[in-house]
Write a structure and sequence with these properties.
The chain has a single domain (2-219), classed as 3-Layer(aba) Sandwich (Rossmann fold), CATH 3.40.50.720. 40% of the residues lie in helices and 15% in strands. It is built from six helices and seven strands; from the N terminus they run βαβαβαβαβαβαβ. It has a seven-stranded parallel sheet, with helices on both faces. Helix 1 (11-22) packs across helix 6, helix 3 (59-69) runs parallel beside helix 4 (95-120) and helix 4 runs parallel beside helix 5. The longest helix is centred in the middle third of the chain and has 26 residues, at 95-120.
Length: 227
Amino acid sequence: MRWVITGANRGIGLELVRQLADRGDAVEALARATSPALSELVARAPDRVRAITCDITTDASVRAAVAAIGSVAVDVVVNNAGVMGKMQSLHDLDLEDVVRTFDVNALGAIRVTRALLPLLLRADTRRVVSITSGMGSIEDNTHGGAYGYRMSKAALNMANRSMSVDLAHQRVTCVVMNPGWVQTEMGGEGAPTPVAESASRMIGIIDELTLAQSGTFLDYRGGTIKY
C-alpha cells in the first residue's frame, strides 16, 4: 500500500511513517520542513519513505508536492498536519490566529485531498483519513474556550462529512479520527496515550475501513464519536 501523510516530520505523523515503513508500506511523508527523525527514516528505508516539502496552506505548494509524488496510485491519504493555535478566551481572542489555525486545520485537508484525488482514484483502496480531535465535537463541548482549535476541527469534521457524500459515487471512504490525548509536543508530557500506541491503533482501524463507515467520526480505540 502507498500512503500520503501530512505533518510527517514529528509527533503522530512521524510515528505513522515509522510504523508503516517498518511493515513494508510505501509512504510519501509531507511536511513544511524535514526533521532529523524523518531524515533518519528516509535514510533507513529509502525505497519505502520519501520526504516531500509541502506547506498545506498554499495551493501552489500542495500542487508541487503532488507533482513530486508522480502518477502512482495512492491508497490512503492521512491529513495529519495541524496546529493548536492560541488557547484564549472570548475576551482576549486573537482573530488573526483563529484564521491561521482554521487555514491549517480545516482548509489544509481540503487542499491536499482535492489535489490527491486523481491519484486516489488510481487505487482500489481509496481512503481519506483526517486527524481531528474530541475538541471538535459540538455535542461534547462543555468547557468552552480554545475557539480557533475547536472551530477549525469542527469545520474539518463537516468537510469530511461533505466529502463522504460528494465522493461516495467514486467509492472513496472519508473519515475523521480522534487520535486521543497523545504524548507529543502538542499534547504535552502529561498526556496519557503514548504516540506509538495511538499510531498503531489508528493504522489497525484504517486497514479495516469500509465504504459503509464513510462520513463517520471515529476514535483511535475503534469507537464512534458524536459530531
